[in-house]
Amino acid sequence: VPLLVIFPTLFAFTTWLERKVLARIQNRVGPNKVGVPLTRYGGRLSLFGLGQPLADGIKMLFKENIVPRDADRLFHLLAPILALIPAMLVLCFLPLNFPWINDIQDSVKAFMLDGAVIFFFAISGLNTLAIFMAGWASRNKYSLLGGMRAIAQMVSYEIPLVLSAVVVVMMVGSLNANSIAGAQAGWNWFIFTPWGFAAFVIFFISALAETNRSPFDLPEAESEIIAGYFTEYSGFKFALFFLGEYIAMFAISGLAVILFLGGGHGPGSDIVWIACGWFLAKLFGLIAIMIWLRGTLPRLRV
C-alpha cells in the first residue's frame, strides 16, 4: 500500500522535473505558474510551478473520455489498465530499503524470492500484450503501427537486457535481488569492474528502448504517427498509460541500481533512512540521465 502512495507521488514530481529540465536545456521557462494559493485576493506561492502535476492530474481525471466509433470498447478500456498493472507489480521485486519494509516478515517479501530477477523480467514482459491490445482495439492505422513498433522494439531489446543481468547473476550466484545488492556492500559496486561497467552500459541502453525513451521513442513518434499506440486515448485512460510508462522507468532504473550500483549501500547505509536516501539518489541519478538524453538527442526518423 505505501508503494501505491510513494511512487505516484514520485511520478508526479518526475513529470515536473522533466519539464523543467527540458525547458532549461531548450532555453525556456517551463511550468512556473501553478502553486499554492495564499489569500482570497489572488496571492500565491508558485514554488517553481510544483503544483503543475496536480493540476494536470485533475485535468486528466475530469477530461472527456473519447472512444472511437469502430473501436473494440472492451479491449480499449482494458489496455491502459493492463499496461499499469505489470509496472506496479515489478516494484515489489526491488529491495527498496524503506523503514516499514523491515517490519514485514521475510516470507511475504517478494524481493526475498530466489527467482526475484526472473519474476521481474517475466512480469514486465506482459506490458507488450497491453500495448498491442491498445493499438489493435483503437482501429486506427497510426495506433496499430505504433503498437507494432513498440512490440518489435521491446522484444528485440529484451534479449540484451536479460543477458546483461545474467552477467551479474552468474557472478553473485543468486537470483535473489536482496543477495545481489548485499554482495555490493561498501563500495564494491559492480559498475566499478570492467565487466560490470560494460554490462551496465548494455543494460541502460536496452532499458531506454524498453521504456520507449529517447532516442528509442519510435513507437510514439509525433512527427510520423501522431502519438503511437495511444493516439485514440484521452482523459483518465491516457493518464494511466502515462503513469505506467513513468513507473516502468522507475522500475527499470531501480533494477539497474540493484544490479550494478549497490542498491542502498553507501556511506552510513547501516541507518535505514540513509540507505533509503542512497537508493533514491541513485534512482533519480539514472532518471536524470534519461531526461538529459531526451533533451539532447534527436529522434531518428524511420
From TrEMBL:
Q: Does the keyword Transmembrane helix apply?
A: yes
Q: List the subcellular locations.
A: Membrane
Name any GO cellular component annotation.
membrane
The main location is membrane
Q: Does Flavoprotein count among this protein's keywords? A: no
Instruction: Specify one Pfam family.
Output: NADHdh
Q: Which GO terms describe its biological process?
A: aerobic respiration
Task: Give the UniProt keywords, A-Z.
Answer: Membrane, Transmembrane, Transmembrane helix
Instruction: Give the molecular function GO annotations.
Output: NADH dehydrogenase activity
Give the residue spans that cross the bilayer. 74-96, 116-138, 159-177, 189-209, 238-259, 271-293
Annotated membrane topology is: Multi-pass membrane protein
Q: What is this protein called?
A: NADH-quinone oxidoreductase subunit NuoH
